[in-house]
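Kindly inspect this chain:
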Amino acid sequence: MKFGQQFSALYQKVTFGFNVSLILFSGFLLTTSIVEILAHENKHALSTLVGLAVFFGGLLVICSRNVWIQSNDRKAMRELREEQSILNRARQTKLALTIPETALNCQLRIADTKKAFERLSLTGVCQIDVTEEGELCYRFPSFESDTRSSTLIESPIIIKTQVNEKEFT
C-alpha cells in the first residue's frame, strides 16, 4: 500500500470518528437545550437556548449526513473490491465459477460472493448456467479462450449481409 493510500485510509477513519463524536456531543447538547426550554429553568435566556438548540440540531444533521455518505462510500469500495477479485479469478481460470469455489479462492463470504455474482450478471459481465446437479455456474465469455476473436470475426450483421448477397446472385 502506498503512502498516499495509507494517508487517505487514516484520514477517512479519523474524519469518521470525528463525525461520530460530534453527533454524540451535539445530540447531548441539543437534548440538554430542549429539556431546559421545556422545564422553564431560568439559568439562560430563552433566545440563547433556542439558538443553541438550532445550532446543535444543524450540527447533528450535517455530521449524520457525513457519516451516511462515508458509510455508502465504504460499501461501494467493498463491492468494487469483491467484483475485481472475482473478475481476476475468472481471468486466471478461464472456466465457469461456482459460488463456494469463488468464495474460498477469493476469501469472501458466501453471501457477499453471491451478491457480487448477481451484480455482475445483471450488468451482463457474466452468464449464469446450471449444472446437472442444479448448481449455478457463472461463465465469463470475455475471458474464455478464443471466444473473443471468433465473435469479432463473425458478427451477425456480416453473416446476414453475406446471406443476402448469395440470394441475389
Q: What stands out?
A: The first helix runs from residue 3 to 39. The first strand starts at residue 127 and ends at 130. The radius of gyration is 28 Å. Helices lie at 3-39, 46-93, 99-106, 110-122, 147-153, 156-168.
